[in-house]
Amino acid sequence: MTDPQAASQPCWYELGTPDLDGATAFYSRVLPWTIVPSGIEGMDYRLANDHDGNGVAGLMDLGDQTDAPPPNWIFYLAVTDADAKAAEVTAAGGTIVASPADIPGTGRFAVCADPQGAVFGILAPAPMEGSAPTVGAYDQSVPGHGNWHELVTSDPEAAAEFYGALFGWTKSTLLDMGESGTYQLVAADGHDVAGIMALMGAPHPSWGVVFGVEGVNPAVEAARAAGATVVREPMEVPGGSWAAYLVDPQGAYVAVAGPQG
After folding, report:
1. What values do phi and psi take at 144, rounded to 5?
2. pLDDT recorded at residue 145
3. In angstroms, rounded to a whole number, what is the distance separating the alpha carbons of residues 30 and 40?
């Protein structure tokens, strides 16, 4: 497995929600997270930590996100220079949703959209001190961490070229999904991290995030009991894992993957 903190690897996840308390209760029940205040002055930003205390995601009020979008999950890609990469995004036809800014003790970030309009983030992590954990927010071997990323887009080929040019992602396996078209796996440093497909009825291009769980069936039942809508029931996916797709009670789309359970 590649270094989860390496450049061009997903390194952080973030939820924008209209109900922070409700989202905190929901994700604490469905995922193996402990959600705590971040301590950021003047902002109710909450941190989702795994059982070992490693940070995986942040939760924030929609009003604190640029242009107050609908409930959403986004992920951040690790970069070495957030300002330089943001300039590359615009030069390649993308847009900057939130300009580069510093997060004390964390790094410098920006929120971007690719040329088709799908939103993602970039983060130049601050140097870690002492015996900081080496496990990143994206780690397919750890339940509760980022497990996969899926892009639905109006132009899959152009999207693959965009992420390839800016982040060095390469095409790997192309899966035939029959009437649904193709599903292009893409890799970072030789490790598959995402899939790209056509819109297939989705209203607009967007990224979806998938979190690992110890058992997909128990996670889905916990989510259903906590008020989520199950968009796709658990199904087997290539590689022997199972996945299910949900809309949380606050309206954000999210998926879980792992053993059937």
Report:
1. 95, -15
2. 97
3. 25
